[in-house]
Amino acid sequence: MMAKYNPQEIEKKWQQRWAEDRLYEVGEDDSRPKWYALTMFPYTSGDLHIGHWYAMAPSDVHARFKRMQGYNVLHPMGFDAFGLPAENAAISRGIHPFVWTMQNIDNMRRQLKSIGAIYDWSREVITCLPEYYKWTQWFFLKLYENGLAYRGKAPVNWCPECQTVLANEQVVDGSCERCGATVSRRDLEQWFFAITRYADELMEHNGIDWPERIKIMQRNWVGRSQGTEISFGLDHPGASEKEIRVFTTRPDTIFGVTFMVLAPEHPLVVKLTSPEKKAEVEAYIERSRRQSDIERLSTEKEKDGVFIGAYALNRLNGERVPIWIADYVLLSYGTGAVMAVPAHDERDFAFAKRYNLPIRVVIAPPDWQGGELKQAYIEAGTMVNSGQFNDLPSEQGIEKVSDFLEKKGWGKRTISYKLRDWLISRQRYWGAPIPMVYCPKCGVVPVPEKDLPVLLPEDAEFKPTGESPLKYHEQFVNTTCPRCKAPARRETDTMDTFMCSSWYFLRYASPHYEEAPFDAEPVKYWLPVDLYTGGAEHAVMHLFYARFFIKALRDMGLVSFGEPFSRLFNQGVIIAEKQKMSKSRGNVVTPDGYVSELGADAVRAYLMFIGPWEQGGEWNDSGISGMSRWLNRVWNLASGEYSQDGKEIPGGREQAERALSRLTHQTIRKVTEDMERLRFNTMLAALMEFTNYLNRVKEEGAVNVSAWQEAIDALLLLLAPACPHIAEELWQKTGHEYSIHNQQWPKWDEGLAKEEEVTLVVQVNGKLRDRIMVPASITEAEAKEKALGSQKIKAHLEGKEIVKTIYVPGKLVNLVVR
Ligand SMILES: [Zn+2]
Ligand SMILES: [Zn+2]
Which residues surround ligand 1, an ion (CB under 5 A)? Predict the structure, then answer.
């Protein structure tokens, strides 16, 4: 009596066995080539939903595939454990963030273990533990020592709800990414990392295999533009400054400047505003403070502003131009001031129309007759109304005007970037404390390495107030100066959690190393990561910061490579009920129920089958039931008795064996190629076709036992990465040694995989009219199609009607016509 497929029983059994045998633990002392497969570690938000599994299961399949291909595969797992959501959840539930986080980790680890992945749990990393964040702090000190961490005052995005500063990336359409509140602006003294120093290098993705769209997003994020910085004169009694500097990529339009616009926060605004304009200007500044950069830059928003009652001087034509403020100009972009050329800039055009400011054409469109423009003309053209530069093509004008400005000392060519330095200070509790001390005598003093970690006190009041909760923790704040031993105060802000995730992939190489964040040798062996998989939403955050971080470490001589992730792959999104899963919609699918009912193998396989991995797809229950039925068929196929004493085989046993061997080798080829390309859905489809064929062979008893066993072995080996438990169990049941996961990946033979060809005879009314070479496995429909497609046959069919078709498989098509 054949035992039934019981995933609950076999999955638990094998997971236990693999763990006991430490089957997936890896070391560096290994003759196999290395493969570092990494999935972005999860945030410790509570339960893993099916979306997490969609990130993790297929990447485990690929890692298992590489392992069977003979690689020494490191596929670690850990937890991104600091950050706002933990703190907010802890506040709303009244539990300490540490307790909440560690409970979540226990639960998530249990869920992750049920996947049956090859995670080497001996290398687990948790970023909120002192043994980890000690080194996050150490890296802060290194960046500081190397002049890459500095303190500066800057307007910041402020979420009034979360009571914290947000990075630009965390502001979505002017609202807080976490809570949806409208973001306003505030000035605070903060810590920054000088990521802009790597701006040029971060735009290049040399020697790495990354999706094109991520590379484009990163390049746009850096936003490099070549242009000219131009000095406008100022003649104002109240100001000591004698100029305003603007950045432009179009110096050829300088004769068309009819006004100037400053960012409301520009330091000159207060100095230049005339007394009668003061109240109006102040009200405008206050209003713009409440808006985020993104709102201010929105193309939907109407451009408004205020004249401040002062004038600048265009040195090229000696004209006085009025100075306005408008919030579409940001202080953090360029110089915070723009020369407005309404004829040749869309925003300036709209602004000029609204306030009735002059619009002067200085670049003539090709067929321009000297009239008014209906809209800004932003393309190249011929310079007009531009004094000595008239009649120059605008591309040449850019160079000539820049030369002239440089000669006069009124300007210089320069490069401008949209990228700002990385603001890492957070006024929150649940993060790694910034290891700095403020001494009344010595100023800013770094905490000595030997005193790390600066521990996060457990008993701090962590409710948000707008200031760091650590500020009110006397024992934490009060310390002595490491340099002069006088009483001093600690920095109370904590670090952006993106700092923790900028280096975790290094820690996996030597997770318990105590002398440094990582041991040089294992890092040299494992890094860079060979395949990194995760969501595309991290393009200009985690994936950007991690690259900066590695480049900085390389320049400090700490690592020998400049890119952390050699190949990047972004999986798509799993939706449910036609929508993105979210708690508020109530359509979150959790894997646990499916795992306990149908088994992890069915869930893994179904996730891969749902669609191309990079596209994602829709979860539905009938789909996973279908997958479970297929695994049952595989079970019955491989574990049941095979008898070759079947009925007479048409074409003979030998031909049946050749056909089976051909399909086996074709399937090996297809599955291998799909695995390499991470095309798991078509890989599974090929395995399903293969099992259907095997079922027919079994019913017919068409091949010898040894040929049958060979085919079943191949099926199990090909199935092992996707469905590791059932493959292991069936491997044992079919008389093999434990473990299938230590077997070599099967290789295909091109000769055996080649389609056998036969000659198809085509007759019309019984007379031979053509011979065509076709694959031996051709179906009746395909054979007819081929026959009808033949030019010779077409000639014989003209004006006739086919009344009957006779088909002899692989041999003959006879078309009976009238
Ligand atoms: Zn918020
Ligand atoms: Zn001191």
Answer: 159, 161-162, 176, 178-179, 181
DSSP state of 467: S
For the segment 179-210, what is each residue's pLDDT rounded down to a tens digit? 888 888 777 889 999 999 999 999 999 999 99
Is the model's pLDDT at 16 over the cut of 80? yes
CA of 456 to the centre of ligand 1 (A): 23
How many angstroms is it from 464 CA to the middle of ligand 1? 11
**Cα angle, residue 565 at apex, residues 116 and 220 outer, rounded to 5°:** 125
Going from the Cα of 484 to the center of ligand 2, the distance in angstroms, rounded, reads 4
- Phi/psi for 570 (5° steps) reads -105, 120
CB 813 within 8 A of CB 772: no
Beta strands in 319-431 (DSSP E): 319-326, 337-340, 363-364, 382-383, 411-416, 422-423, 425-426
List residues bridging with 175 in a β-sheet. 172, 182
Query: Which helix (DSSP H) or strand (DSSP E) does residue 110 occupy?
Result: helix 97-114
What confidence tens digit (pLDDT) does each residue in 646-656 have? 666 667 788 88
CA–centroid distance, 160 to ligand 1, in Å, is: 7
Span 112-165, pLDDT tens digits: 999 999 999 999 999 999 999 999 999 999 999 999 999 998 677 888 888 887
Cα 485 to ligand 2 centroid, rounded to whole Å: 6
Q: How far apart, in whole angstroms, are the C-alpha atoms of residue 142 and residue 130?
A: 18
Contact 560, 156 (CB under 8 A): no
Which ligand is closest in space to the CA of residue 484?
Answer: 2
Contacts of 774 (CB under 8 A, 6+ apart): 757, 758, 759, 760, 782, 783, 786, 810
Neighbouring residues of 103: CB distance < 8 A, sequence distance ≥ 6: none
**478 Cα–ligand 1 center, Å:** 30
Query: 433 alpha carbon to ligand 2 midpoint, in Å?
Result: 20
Query: Is the bond preceding residue 739 a cis peptide, omega within 30 degrees?
Result: yes
The owner of tokens 């339960």 is: 47
Q: What is the 8-class DSSP label of residue 578?
A: T
Closest ligand relative to 444 C-alpha: 2
Tell me, in angstroms, the distance from the centre of ligand 1 to residue 563's CA: 33
Phi and psi dihedrals of 774, rounded to 5?
A: -135, 160
Alpha carbons 93 and 401: distance in angstroms, whole number: 64
Tokens 């079919």 appear where?
A: 734
541, amino acid identity? M
Report how far Cα 159 is from the mean position of its chain's Cα atoms: 25
Q: How far is the CA of 637 from the centre of ligand 1 (A)?
A: 56
pLDDT digits (tens, 9 = 90+) for 340-387: 999 999 999 999 999 999 999 999 998 888 888 999 999 999 999 999
Which tokens is 499 given?
Answer: 């700092």
Report the alpha-carbon distance of residue 254 to residue 316 in Å, rounded: 8
Q: How far apart are the first and last CA of the chain?
A: 59
Question: Tokens representing 382?
Answer: 């011929």
**Minimal CA–CA distance to 357: which of 345, 374, 340?**
340
Ligand nearest to the CA of 441: 2
Please list, in sequence order, all residues whose beta carbon lies within 8 angstroms of the beta carbon of residue 715, skipping any fewer than 6 positions away. Answer: 634, 637, 638, 667, 687, 690, 691, 694
Q: Rounded distance, CA 707 to CA 662, Å?
A: 12
User: Residue type at 800?
Assistant: K
Question: What is the number of the ligand closest to the CA of 443?
Answer: 2
User: Looking up tokens 């229950």, which residue turns up?
Assistant: 621
* Integer Cα distance of 433 and 33 in angstroms: 39
The closest ligand to the CA of 442 turns out to be 2
Pick the closest to residue 201 from 220, 222, 216, 217 (CA basis).
222
Determine contact, residues 404/317, Cβ cutoff 8 Å: no
- Ramachandran angles phi, psi of 442, nearest 5°: -90, -10
With vertex at residue 772, the alpha carbon angle to CA 768 and CA 776, rounded to the nearest 5 degrees, is 120
Ligand nearest to the CA of 163: 1
Q: How far is it, in rounded angstroms, from Cα 528 to Cα 77? A: 16
